[in-house]
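## tool: complex_structure
## caller: assistant
## args:
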Amino acid sequence: MAATAASVDRRSMMGTPRPLGVRRPALHPSSLRSWLLLAPLLIFLSLGFLIPLLRMVQLSVYDPTLRNLLPATAPAITSWSGEALPGDPVYRALAQDLKAATEAQTIGIVATRLNTEISGIRSVVMRTARRLDGLATAAPRDWFTAQDPQWADIGTWRAIARLTQAITPSHYLAALDLTYDENGALAQREPNRRIHRALFLRTLAISAVVTLLCILLGYPVACVLTTVRPALRSYLFLLVLLPFWTSLLVRTTAWIVLLQSQGVINDALVGLGLIANDGRMSLIYNMTGTIVTMTHILLPFFILPLYSVMASIPPSYMQAALSLGARPAFAFRRVYLPCTLPGVTAGGLLVFILAIGYYVTPALVGGQSGQMISNVIAFHMQSSLNWGLASALGVLLFALIGVFFVLYSRLAGLATSDWISGS
Amino acid sequence: MTLLPIEDTRGLWRGLLIAVSTAVFVFLIAPILVIIPLSFNAEPYFTFTPGMLRLQSQAFSLRWYEGFFQEPRWLVATGNSLFVATASTVLATTLGTMAALGLRDEHLPGRHAIRGLILAPMIVPIIITAAGTYMVFSVVRLVDSLTGLIIAHTVLGVPFVVVTVSASLTGFDQTLERAGLILGAPPFLVFRRITLPLILPGVMAGAVLAFVSSLDEVVVALFITPSPQFYTVPRQMWSGLREQISPTILAVATLWIVLSTCLLVTLLMLRRYAERLRAGAPALEPEPAE
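## result:
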């Protein structure tokens, strides 16, 4: 489909009249003008979009925190073979670093970062650092292992060796619920820390349900919009466009007002005697709330592209099928439905892509069970301050969207945003 | 005229289609309409009081609107929102129109990649843009400043302008520009007197879209402007919805619905104007000869 469009384009280009006697030079002079026109925006986009994305990719694999905070241990441990416990110099370097970190009050960061891969090490680090004054310099290894058995665990040292390298896959492993076992091989995380894969699946599931609902609700509406009288059509269009244009927050507010337990819908049901006053339904701050609100917000994104496809189907197709004796249901299934499938695919994929990255609605009406991947990224950005993990999750989300977007542009062409401009 | 693509449809199918689509239209519009009467509630409830249902006048009041106009934080937020939206719209419209003119060049190397980059903020999840922007802006000291927010909103608004202006340029007859140049007009004069008037509906439509997108944006604002003195209206609503939900929010929402309806009507009028322009009807009065 895209190929035909391109060839048509080329043909029309060939047909463009060109002033006589003007031969096109190798580098068209207008290119310079075009670059000058584009330059300001490209500079702007670099600062406001491209560099932020690249920074995120960088942070997802690059974490010099421990290398900087343990400046003596990091080089000392590189010569360690990893077979047996490291020798005294490494322990001495760690003692020196922990002392410096305590004085610089960065010991908490060190302990937290180590704890992401060695569970339970946080308190051990803090405790050991407090007792460092009692360290006899002669045999630091014996002193450390006497403080806590974790310092005699080779797995602890393998983790420290990994974490003091600046380039690390650890954030991606954490984002996929993987970790290293004590032998340094990839392994599943403990079940209670396995959260991200389930979260990705939930995000995909919520998006799929929302997409399906949009298809079921949107198809008949687009159908009606194509076939009603033009005068009525412009009014019906307003009913689709007005919610489309109303602020996301206003619409989310509206659904909170409608769905909360003291809200309009529950009040109406109680008033009508359909449910008891103490049996009010919890329709919001859970997955139901997320799905209802997201469907409402994304429905116009499905209806509008589908409408533009439906409007381009000549009515004569159906007339031909019917006059040849097909029953209406058969003609619909074999003629009309296949013609509308490109619109369904385009609109459906658009809704799906937008749904995967949703943040505002799940954050406001999702409660616990309605949280999606974006919300967890925000949590790691703002609350746990684990920017590396947030970045790794962000890059994975980006890749996921990318896959569906490639599918979308193959199937629907990049021009589907045309209805925005009304052309 | 028969309803449906399926003529001679049995009454049952037709009835079903009408019933389903009516229900969907109600689903689309009712939540927005419900907010409006509730914003005049005399009681601090988010539901219809018995008095409201009986249409008693004392059940209605303007107290939440008074609250909006008296509370400094809402007024500050309104000011911030309008300032950021206006500034980012001006930037996005200027940069986007220039870029769309540049992208018209079919011989530009990497044209599709550049167009893809410009449109990417529409598809990339907002949380990624917001988080990445925060990471970079915290280094270059643009966090907690309206300047930072304006830059971020410009990035989000530009795709709308590029799409609408590119659309109006597809039907554009380039011989008009050539004629101007051949007759000796400097390029900027050609742009101002020939190109701009003809693509103006697209430029304006893009500006309205960019304005609305900035006005509605909350996720980037959550990251870039954490201090209350820089809150925008959606940011203030976010706090209201998460912390202390007060019916003032319903008054704000109603005012906002009125505003966005006006902007929608503007956009639809621009669209109609563009269609007339494309159909070749004289849209602008010819300017007096100089």
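## assistant note: The domain at 79-278 of chain B is CATH 1.10.3720.10 (MetI-like fold). DSSP finds twelve helices and no strands in chain B. Handing back to user.
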